[in-house]
């Protein structure tokens, strides 16, 4: 028989206002309260819109941002693992303000001998430690890291400056007016850290064969951001919360041993001077290969190269326009492959550099993952605007920079690897290449709001990974965040927390925002609405500095959906989702009004007389009359089974109620009630379901779409407890 699905039956009730009027004399005076409804608007939380960051979430007509250009000459001293730099900086004051000074970031000072970072780490005595850890913890071993600033000058004259740990203030000779530029020079050097032994987001790895793999970033004094939101973003770098940077143009020359292979942010300017004729020919072939990578330097050639030690030097010249940072990688051990990627008619090069220790895994997957990431991210955001994206293999790193990133994932010495290692490598390459979009182009303030780059990036990463492998375990779905959200509340932080003090940093800044956005796309908004809104936000803020409010407002502005309830709950609180079935009550059609209805019919006779014929619903099986509706059915099938279902919400978050009904014949039917069903009652709500078949079971959130932390109340009838559950209940009792 055809089912009449999910019809709503209700008794006729006198309005709440009427009943309230009748009980007015009995009503007691109650204390007033403020609006705590979960659906109240966020005007009390979000920054007031202005002509730079508008109410729609778009940049305003007065939006400005600074520009910083760098011309650098770098030299790598491989024998002593030191890097020397001489940089000329042009600062463009595009703001409306006069600036008395500039702030420069000195990230390498985080690991200097006098760094405060180790002193800010609380912890009890460890029961064991490696000798190196013991030395660094208790013996105050001097390692000599941190910047050595040799010169700070303008027009050849010393420039007043003051170093405050990881920040340096440049005292300007006179205030820099709006529209003016200021040019100055910083000459520096520092000892490069061993990223495997000393840790760090960049540095070098030393191999038993005597060679090093240099993955170099945060290596030069970089201007901090100045804007109308933070003023100067000059929060100290404690090692976790990453970087807020300005866009600019880079002209960089890097001198390294002549037998090194190198990649960096930007386009190579002197390929004839640094590449062999064979390498240039192979790269030209790669520029036409859109299916498979082409080997520019083979493993055999790399193994031969790593056995030598050239005493000569070679200078590589790169230029990068409209980027917010610069990084490079160099070694004589590199295998090099590349392939072309078609991004909406524009050819972009996907490239990988890796020592033989990365094979066969890297040769099989790295460049293909880079290409897939560029394609999938471009679909959901904007066409990738840079000429290339490079993945470099580093043992312990996963870190991103414009056009280049450093990624882990190493097979065993015999070349074998587990699925876990392979998937970890695919995941980290997707993630780090994806960072080209967030925050290298959509340039949010990482120092303040980690989730705006890590969370948004981790969300798009889900879709890219599933495109590369439909069975990929992304680890960022709503079901993956349940254990974290259901944990000890004293060990949780809202997503909207500054990154340095966030507890459980990974779940908070990566998984929870990613899972929330996936939930928005799949369950709350739908892909079509979500994708348009997300793309709108991404395009609006390309090469600009968005805030959280710009994201929230853009998503609502472009979709026509009020999502304040979601942002407030998911991002500003540590509330959890817990929606279940409190009660299921069978109801029956009848032609007999209940005693309560009879009294109402007497009291409001005129009202009921105007309604005409009535059928009734009762919870008394003995009064049932299945044919009560037959003469009014107009040939349509009348439902034989009616159920009143009361849903409860022990959790603090409001979410859609996803209901799956299983009928007597084994078929299922699903309906989603929007989150707004909780607007009038935050504790319980009722719905009535009717069908021509008996409903055998009801389940809430059957596919674990809403991060429900307790699914024990999600099913009716409740599953029978096994003996272990019975034992646990007895123990609790």
From TrEMBL:
Region (Disordered): 701-733
Pfam families assigned to the protein according to its UniProt record, in alphabetical order: Peptidase_M1
GO biological process: peptide catabolic process
Biased composition (Basic and acidic residues): 719-733
Single Gene Ontology MF annotation: metalloaminopeptidase activity
GO CC annotation terms, alphabetical: cytoplasm; extracellular space; membrane
SUPFAM superfamilies for the chain: Metalloproteases ('zincins'), catalytic domain
Residues in Peptidase M1 membrane alanine aminopeptidase domain copies: 378-570
Signal peptide residues on this chain, from the entry's feature table: 1-20
InterPro entries listed in its UniProt record: Peptidase_M1_aminopeptidases, Peptidase_M1_dom, Peptidase_M4/M1_CTD_sf
PANTHER family per record: PROTEASE M1 ZINC METALLOPROTEASE, PUROMYCIN-SENSITIVE AMINOPEPTIDASE-RELATED
Identification of the protein by name: Aminopeptidase
